[in-house]
Structures are given as C-alpha cells and as structure tokens.
C-alpha cells in the first residue's frame, strides 16, 4: 500500500515551472514494508513522473526509508528521514503516520489509509486536522460488519468466521466492537487470530477453530500471506474475504474495500496543493466514498459457491485467478 501511495503522490506533481527551477524538491517516503518489494514497483512509475515534467534526480529527489516489516524501527527511521529535511513526507497507515508525527510537527505529512485517525490522535478532527498531517482514512470502523454481511449473503449457512489481523496495526481495535455487533446480528461466532509477522501464522490453530470462512484484514503482515490463506480456504472449501483486491488476485474468493483510485486521486490533489503552499491543517482527511466488490469466479466454483446474478451485478471486478503454487 505504501508503494501505491508514493507513486500516486509523485505522479501528481506540483506546478512544473515552480519545481523545474531552483533546488530539487525532496520527497520523504516512510515505508513499513521491505525494500525488495517496493523498489521494483516504484521504478515502474518513473514514466508517469516524466510525463508530468519531472526529471528524477534533477527536479525531484526521493528519500525513502524502509522498516523491513519491523514496526519498532519506524520511530528511528522517521527521525532519520526528518533529518534529511524533506519538503513533504508520504506514508501509509496509522502506525507509520504516528512515527512521522513523533519526529516532526512542521514538515507536511500526507498519509493514505489511516485507521481511526481521530481516535489514535493523528488529527483533531476529520474536517479540520489542525496540524501538519492530512490525507485519507481507512474505511470507518462501522465498515467492519459489511464484510460479514457479504459472507452471509454468499453462504447463509456459515456459523464461524476466523478474523486474521496484526494486533500492532494501530487503530485496528476500533473496528472490533462493530464486527462483534454485526456478528451478533447475523448469528455468527468470531475467532480472532493475531499475527505480528508472516512466519508466525499457525494454520493448525486456524484448523482447530473449524471456521466456515476467513476474513483477512490487510496490512504489511497479511499481504505476504494472501496466497497461503487463499490456499488454506480453497483446500477446505470454505469462504474467504479481504479488504484488499490483491487478496482475490492471489486466489481468495472475495474482497470488499475502498476504491484505491479514488484514494490515490485525493493524495495526488493534496500533495499538489501542499507543495503549492496549502496547509495540511485545513485540508480535511478524506474518507472513502466508493467501495469495490471483487469476486474470484474460479475460487467460487472450487469451494462450491453459486454466484447469483445480483452478486455479479454488484461486483466491480470479476476475476478467474488461480492460487499461486506453494
């Protein structure tokens, strides 16, 4: 996700003339994930920068810092990044945003998908952040129950749902009461499985809960596990759903989440406006307004799900994606 944040923001640019003259602008990039997973994608976006008049290394200097999936490294990396005196810092998620705020209260910060930004203290309010940080939020906590509604509509007989999450994902606890309320309404029992690193996943513990469905909350920990979790569900012919459409591309059954293009356009606009002189203190944190349902037709057939016409009409994208080999 943090990689998509950077490419969206940089592709927007500010005024070509203002940035083409004088010292190159420094764009700090604080990334939770691994350098190896990020650099290739970013390199592929340089064409977008060139099409907007940017010459990397001349008009624009990228200053990335990678936590290599170690959340404990974020505060020190943020301080190191601030010491390079960037013009703006781009990041993704409430954890990295908190680290960036802890390192500077003056350099503008643009964040994508901040979970519960008011509740975790990133901003004073969504409408008026009041400090040096703005951007987009993740779906509101109430959204947590929507995925359970989709699971029940696909297979009404389900009773037990395993929710996989990273407990260190800042703000994620705000979603739990809403998921529980939806589960009570639907007559579902939720089992939480918390994993701080991909290698800590224990499939045998999942098996012991005998879930009828798995529900994956995306972040840098769960992303590398998408194919593993999709395969787990497929082998047991149970349902699987996530917030990230990449879960479906890895063989998962369903995803329901914010429209990434919409969120990236907000970031494009905000980075541009801030670099033109706008204050992040008065740029509202934007919540998602469009949510996309993605369906994997191949997985549906494999787990015995009949896709109704109503569900297919709701879908933004219907794929035929196989689970990658183990």
From TrEMBL:
GO terms for biological process: proteolysis. It comes from the Bacteria. Keywords: Hydrolase, Protease, Serine protease. Gene3D superfamilies: 3.40.50.2300. The keyword Secreted does not apply. GO terms for molecular function: serine-type peptidase activity. This is ABC transporter substrate-binding protein. PROSITE patterns: SUBTILASE_SER.
